[in-house]
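Supplementary notes for students who missed Thursday's class. We covered one full example, reproduced here. Read the sequence, then the structure, then the short commentary at the end.
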Amino acid sequence: APPGYVGYEEGGALTEAVRRRPYSVVLFDEIEKAHPEVFNVLLQLLDDGRLTDGHGRTVDFRNTVVIMTSNIGSEVLAEKAGSITERDRELVLEALRRHFRPEFLNRVDDILVFRSLEREHLVKIVDIQLERLRRLLDERKIELEVTDAAKQLLAERGFDPQFGARPLKRTIQRLVQDPLALKLLEGEFTDGDRIEVDAERDELVFRKK
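Structure (token representation):
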């Protein structure tokens, strides 16, 4: 924060976090959207392994893993099925070279190209998200079973070509967690119940087993 503002004495959010926990993983998501000044800071970080904050304090980043994600070149892989070929990878790298400065890319140790999510990947992500809900229900001794048909419906409703699987969490909240909470409040289900979530006529249904 600038002088005179709350937080001025606290240092930068990034440098302060790494100063306190030097063995960290720092993630810059969708780095292509960052302000140009961020890239100037990253050049110092990636080149020297350290950053200097607004107070002149140097913070060591040599034990920090820096990961950056980007959607640059994603159109090459948008409709791609199966393995990524060397030609695919080269097209993505060409797109990166058009967008990012050479001195920035030259400081990146490795570039990994991931293919688009497919149906089986989405169902696995649904399982991960549902496991969080199951842990919440465990506190009330409620067992939640979700059929394969219900998982497929959630995967389809929660996938967006532009945002990938990010909407899945909100979809599960809207289609599973919120209706289930309402049914618990209304007394349709209670502590200790075993509940099945299934798909019928393109909708989710809840049953006590």
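Commentary. The two ends are 56 Å apart (CA to CA). Strands lie at 25-28, 50-52, 58-60, 65-68, 143-146, 194-200, 203-208. If anything here is unclear, bring it to office hours.
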